[in-house]
């Protein structure tokens, strides 16, 4: 009987430790992409050689990106481009909210991780959420 109770407790603790919550993924909003695109056009250096920036961030229950970090940068390297990237990070933090992740059981907004890409191609800017 003691072995059964011990085994049951170990299984219960393991299940609780590794249980996954069901939640929807956060969704990028057009307000975010439009606002950021407009700001990028305003601050981007004329000789921008950066072609792509891949960001990851924690997104709060309010839909705000709290810690946008560059995971990968393609191109760039000048002082002006470095300043552009630093300024872009502060603009991302101040940009309009995303649609936050929702807990499937309660329907309440929850904190989650998100990844997105900003691409620069012939003066066009494309901002997409990564899967």
From TrEMBL:
UniProt signal peptide: 1-19
UniProt keywords, alphabetically: Signal
Lineage: superkingdom: Bacteria
Protein name: TonB protein C-terminal
